Structures are given as C-alpha cells and as structure tokens.
Amino acid sequence: MSHYFHTPSGDERRRTITARFWDTDWEFTTADGVFSADGLDLGTSVLLRESVPPAGASRLLDLGCGWGVLAVALASACPDAVVDAVDTNERALALCATNAAAHGVGERV
User: Fold this and answer.
1) What is the total count of domains within the chain?
2) Residue 42 falls within a domain, yes or no?
C-alpha cells in the first residue's frame, strides 16, 4: 500500500482542479499519489479562508507543499518573496513546480 508521503510508483493520472480563495478562482494540476489530489483539504481551506498573505515577506516556507497551492498563492501575493516548497513526495514537488510555472511564479518557488 502506498501513502502520499512516499513517492508513488503507480500511474500519475493528472487532472485540473479549481479552488476559490482570496476572492480569486485558481486552477491547479494534481495527480494520483499526492495528498488531497481531488481538491483542497479542510485544513488548507481554513488556513486560506482565515489568513491574509504576510505583507513585506522576503522568504517563506511551505513545508509539505503537496501540489503547491500555498506556495503558489504566497508567491503570487508576495511579489518580493521567495517561497521554499518542500515535500518528501517527488511527484508532489513536480506538480508544485508545474503549478508555480503556470501561475508565473516558477522562478520564485
């Protein structure tokens, strides 16, 4: 049995999901074998609903970045910040990079 915190060996089966937060609709690519591949998990949804981007941040960390929703959102909202996105799952890291590039923040994530 495979868990999302290990790099998956099965088919990737990518898909696009839409998430709404900070008064914006965001599209992200996800795939099988990563945490919460079918949409935002409850914890991330609450965090995004109850928080605002940190003004003036220059460096941020997304630990357990998954497919990159927080890293991409923070980099988009904080144009002077570099976001370090970290995950043990190589597929998740690849998806995070794909999503960062798609949102125009790939050089800072």
Assistant:
1) 1
2) yes
